[in-house]
Design goal:
Oligomer: single chain
Largest sheet: 8 strands, parallel
CATH class: Alpha Beta
Strand order of the largest sheet: 7-6-5-4-3-2-1-8
Helix content: 40-55%
CATH superfamily: Alanine racemase
Distance between the termini: 14 Å
Length: 242
């Protein structure tokens, strides 16, 4: 794994980060929200630790991975940032994620909570958990096939939220979603905004909305996103892992 960025790569990341921050700032202004209302989470999956270090040196304080193996490899090397896990998680990987991440964006089922809670207690940590909400109803293709990009159905959010809130070692942080392929992201994230508002009425501290990626961050911010998860806009095209 590459450990040191070249000057050219550092300049590329600096320019990309500046452009991304300008987009976030402009979206906040357009939405009538404070310019510091949105946190950038840099998704570094498939990219080397040298890029992680370079982003941290440029002031990025929140970094994310969607594979447990990569999180486990990178987090100890760059401990002075907040690590987020954004991928689907199997119960047998719960302890590793609890050990290396502060935030889990993809809680989507009750069966995962027992493993997360036990690991958090054993590790002496508190894991902030976001409920991944399915927005499949807003994507014609996903609604027709019954396949989605993951998440719990909106109607099931209150019950799952109560379970997270009651679990030792876990903290209910809010919601996360991915706009369905082929959807209008403004409409999809509008649906998420409604779910998030209802959740906050029952759990006032669960005020995070993790939504928006490189192609749709403006729509997400317009609809109340507090965290955007960006990979391509920051780091470029990913190299597929084997």
């Amino acid at each position: 794994m590459t450990t040191t960025s070249t000057p050219g790569r550092e300049a590329e990341l600096r320019d990309n980060l500046s452009a991304v921050r300008e987009r976030i700032q402009a979206a906040c202004v357009a939405a009538g929200r404070p310019e510091d209302a949105v946190t950038l989470v840099a998704i570094t999956k498939t990219f080397p630790i040298s890029d992680v270090r370079a982003l941290a040196e440029l002031g990025v304080r929140d970094l994310g991975e969607n594979r447990e193996q990569e999180l486990k490899a990178k987090a100890p090397d760059c401990p002075d940032v907040t690590w987020h896990f954004v991928g689907q998680l199997q119960s047998n990987k719960a302890r590793s994620v609890v050990r290396n991440a502060a935030v889990l964006h993809s809680v989507d089922r009750s069966s995962l909570l027992k493993a997360l809670s036990r690991a958090a207690v054993d590790e002496g940590r508190v894991l902030r958990c976001l409920l991944q909400v399915s927005l499949a109803e807003y994507g014609p293709e996903e609604a027709a096939t019954g396949r989605s990009r993951g998440g719990v159905e909106p109607a099931a959010v209150p019950e799952l939220a109560a379970e997270v809130a009651a679990a030792e070692g876990l903290e209910l942080g809010g919601v996360m979603a991915v706009a369905p392929l082929g959807s209008d992201p403004d409409e999809a994230f509008g649906g998420l905004e409604v779910v998030a508002s209802r959740l906050r009425s029952e759990h006032p501290g669960a005020d995070w909305i993790s939504a928006g990626m490189s192609g749709d961050l403006e729509a997400a911010i317009r609809r109340g996103a507090t965290h955007v998860r960006l990979g391509r806009a920051l780091l470029g095209t990913r190299t597929p892992l084997g």
